[in-house]
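Example with several molecule types.
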Amino acid sequence: MSSKKGIIYLLIIVLLFFLPTIIKDSYFLYMAILSGIFVILALSLNVIVGYAGQMSFCHSAFFGVGAYTSALLVMNLKFSFWLALPLAMVAALILAFIIGYPSLRLRGPYFAIVTVGCAEVVRSILYNWVDLTGGPMGLPKIPPPDPIRLGNLFTLTFNTRQSYYYLVLVFVLLTLFIIIKLMKSKAGRAFIAIREDEGFARSIGIDIKGYKILAFAISAIFAGMAGSLYAHYILFISPVSFTIAESINVILMVIIGGMGTMVGPIFGAILLTALPEVLRAVADYRMVLYGLLLMLVMIFLPGGLMAALRAVASLFSKGSGIAAKGGSIART
Amino acid sequence: MDTTFFIHLANGLAIGSSYVLIALGFTLIFGILDIIQLAHGEIYMLGAYCTYFLLELTGMSFFPALVVSAFVLAAVGLLLERILFRPLRTVPLLNLLLITIGLSIFLMNLANLLWTPEQRTIPTPYMLKTLHFLGLAITVQRVLVVVVSIIVMIAVILFIRRSRIGKAMRAVAQDKEGAAVAGININLVRYVTLAVGCGLASVAGSLVGPIYLVEPTMGATPVYKAFVIVILGGMGSVGGSIVGGLLLGVIETLSAAYISLALKDTVAFILMVLILWVRPAGLFGKILE
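Resulting structure tokens for the full complex:
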């Protein structure tokens, strides 16, 4: 990473930290927090879909299991949020093994369909296990995260939008940091090798199944985390929020932003969280437009917004021949 | 022996035969066009609506309406091939999967807008009549589902095995390039496959419409069940789809009756995951690396 880029990223982070003091509108903060949670979901789905190249439709299941585990532990067993959050991640991880172990052997589209089935099974369990999950009525009155006390010096509470914004921001940055580190490691390179050419990756000794399960597990862990953050922010969860439609929504975020890029899913998540607000005037047509959008993007812009941006950028740098060439080599 | 068991069995066979019709089209389209047509359930839904409107608005009787709907949806299939699938021939399989999901969301919600989410029943006289057979009372409509499905299945099998174009379809399914070299008109084969597949889904929708409710979301689960059936029975295998479809229909109905009603729509998926656990190679090896 060049130092120029580093400074830009640092500035963006600083800006994000001061955002609540600049824009005080409560509804804006609400949308910002929701965007943050979806950024975590999109970034984590991107690991399995964008980098390892396996289309998964059960992100909603990990999101849901994370949300329900965390909420139930806090409400029924009186766990602290700070213990329930990592346990929600563990629950999602266990589910990822149960689903991934038998199904990651399958080739692309078959794996995709099995994940559709798994998402449906999990939703059905959440819906039908009324004694535990409240069934279609959902779980109301989930408490917000308990405050952090440092002796008598100060207390951090998380019952205001401002404070929750910072909590989510920290987790978004943590997710981003870990995923960037992961993608720079040996495992990250293995994911991309599997995506590009599975047969070749196998021939050079990459443990295909092991790395696929790793990518799936990491993707699930962060989805579980997002679930916990979601449950203790919205304070009410029901199976409606964890359907296959939700998975498709997150897939759209990743695709529209740009699969296999770090910035793309972030853009996509913010854009698609804000989009329903923009489309509120045509609320009735929203889902029709969604379907159309998914088709059009996949047909005309399979690389997402990031690919479009790059195309535009290379158009402008065409004049300086060598620089443009250098750029394209660096990209491939 | 408990008679209710046989009633459930008969119901299972009825719903299973409609699954067979959906799965047949689904597996043909996959085998010949290399497309996982996840909007196939919406074709089934449109077939049911078409029959409903023909009955309600024109006063046509049930069987002519079923045939007309099949032709209308076959035409929709031709249109899909012309404006969507043929131009996208070179697109990777996974991208196509997402495109058909987009199409499915689009059609489902379009139906929702046009015809409201209101649940409708196709008014046929066959729902009110019951047939008494070995001490069991079964509605005529359910018997019709099975009988018509069997006739259609036999027709499809004969068509694929005997007719010239059917043989061409099998050739394309086995080896596209080889078939093209041998002078088979691939475009025609693709058209015929989509027309037949969509027609079959429409027949399934028309047959089941009077028993279950006609609504925009009715196609959402059958298409995934078709996929499970195809995994059970073998991709591209007509016989496998028939056995798999009937089996799934029966298992589903029995588990809903004797274990839990909530299981009805999930048992297919549980079955699929179980098969993958117990027999890692699947019931057939083709789907694996």
